[in-house]
Amino acid sequence: MLLKQEIAQQPDVIRRLLDEGAAATGAVASAIREFDPVFACIAARGTSDHAAIYAQYLFGAALQMPVMLATPSLHTVYDRSANLSKALVIGISQSGKAEDVRAVLNDARSQGALTLAITNYQDSPLAATGAYHLPLRADEEFSVAATKTYTAQLTAIAMLATALADDEEMRSGLKKLPGLATESLALTEGIADWAQRYRYMDRLTVLGRGFNYATACEISLKVKELTYIASEGYSEADFRHGPIAVVQEGYPVILVAPQGKTFSAMRDIFDAVEEKGAETLVISNDDDLLRAATKAMPIPAAPEWLSPVVGVIPGQVFAMCQALTRGYEVDKPRGLSKVTITE
What we know:
There is one protein chain. The chain is α/β, with parallel strands linked by helices. 50% of the residues lie in helices and 15% in strands. Helix 2 runs antiparallel to helix 10 (177-186) and helix 8 (148-165) runs antiparallel to helix 9. The longest helix is centred in the C-terminal third of the chain and has 19 residues, at 307-325. The chain is globular and about 55 Å long. It starts with a helix and ends in an 18-residue tail after the last helix.
């Protein structure tokens, strides 16, 4: 089973990226400082779009850099590109073959923007389009559902933010990341024992906040890709503005709630959905919240800005276990291919 192997490879991929990618990341950071962008714009699709959401929070929090998510259809359908001439424009794609993402970088570069591609393939079209390229060094990812390339994307973004911030505390946190990912993997061993309980669920909500809004979106996507159920990821704040009405007795809700600045809000939404009778599946390093959950998915304590890397791993394992419980093919989900080309 390739998916299980690739999930298990994540600590090694992160370690290799930190070791081998430091020099290239430093060079990109120097170019960004010299260019001095007014803002950043990130183009991505699917799983890579969730890495872009993470970058929105991290660049904003660590660098006070405003980040917008690109609207590729303006470039490919309407032929009306926004003015990106003063921006750092980043294209993120596992394969580097997303044509609409490449179009954003191509237009931005023609306007004089500083462009960067983050892909897993040095020889991809997107890598060739960007003025700079940061390879993920994740080796081939065979399973359709992206796992190790997603956490590599998060790591690459974290490395770039750290280099730009020139912050020793952030550097210290990054060095611990492979070990934290290893610990997170070890803590997922019990998920298979209780996955059967949710074999017949046909809908799911995943909640996060701040840095882990991206994690909620990514876990929801993994569940959709592997089990074909209606799963939605929300910011805890947005969920209160209407969608919470769907919660009723027995409704499953995954809450990504590591300790940090967003924890009190996540604890509060836990109480709200529990009161409505929800099945609460909690990803956290807070012992009290884990004890209160219907099912606990513990993670190691990590700096909040790095918690999306360790927090997504139990979500990946949960989605895989659900697919296996239902007898589905996990490496090649129906109707999906590894490379999706949108224009």
